[in-house]
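User: Predict the complex with fe (ii) ion.
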Amino acid sequence: MGVVVLGIESTAHTFGAGVFDSSGGRILANERSVFSPPAGRGMIPRDCADHHSAECGAVLGRVFSKVKPGEIGAVAYSRGPGLGPVLRVGLACARSLSGSLGRPLVGVNHAVAHIEVGKWATKARDPVVLYVSGGNTQVIALSSGRYRVFGETLDIPIGNALDVLARNLGLPFPGGPRIEELASRGAKLIDLPYVVKGMDLSYSGLLTHCTRLAKTEKLEDVCFSFQEHCFAMLAEVTERAVAHTGKSEVMAVGGVAANRRLAQMLRTMCEERGAEFTVVPLEYAGDNGAMIAVTGALMAARPEKPEDATVDQRFRVDEQDVFW
Ligand code: ATP
Ligand code: FE2
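Assistant: Here is the predicted structure with fe (ii) ion placed in the model:
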């Protein structure tokens, strides 16, 4: 039986609200507002929460211009992981909608939502997932009823490494797209630390090294070498997860999945192994409400009691039972 779910995303920069109709398998709305801190100021959770509180009414207004409130059958929200004050804005918003519409509440894991919207959009059935964003670098696959983490970063996430390198080189935020563009004009491969420990990765040494190199080498070559090393490390760990799990699909999700060189490396690896490679479409790659709605629809058979609704800043992907 189908259900129409309103999903609220509020873990970091983005306040998003989206609606998914599971009977038609269609996203009916996907609206967002993204907080960008004033120049020179980092992202302070309180500022971000204030932005989301101020914007949530307008974002929901745009959603309700496309979908009638009476059509909504359940309200889903991002339970975590994320920034405490920001998560609480999303929960408050979802709770008041659930109360006023008289519909159940469903708490969703943000990482699971990145995976589920990717599966919905790409039609992948049971992929090894490479989740690469500003806050995460994990190789994940479904095993014994949970999304298990097969490998992850031991220090900073890849997206953060790209953003910090860009800042150190005097390039604007977000760093990923600018570094990709410079790297495409690089030619010289500089030897850098390549740190894979077991199934885990480390980027901080590489970052320090490249920041120093930028004083003597061309920026194009530094960016090119940085990408070649970072992405080869990711492809290696992903390949080992494919070999270990015996799965025949690989899916890349998260903001860094937009990088064409990374996709090219992963595609080559998959072709050599006879696996299928897919990337989440850009619209659903960054944080958005639709991904919470898609996952909420899968979980709607088991809503929570309103008094159990809560946020969890450290909600790991492998803590959620995949009962659907
Ligand atoms: P999460 O909370 O899930 O960790 P996030 O808040 O970091 O997500 P995303 O939109 O998933 O948000 O990812 C943003 C990251 O993606 C930034 O670090 C940005 O530099 C990176 N990025 C965006 N486009 C590219 C690109 N073309 N190449 C590499 N990195 C990119
Ligand atoms: Fe995210």
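The radius of gyration is 20 Å.
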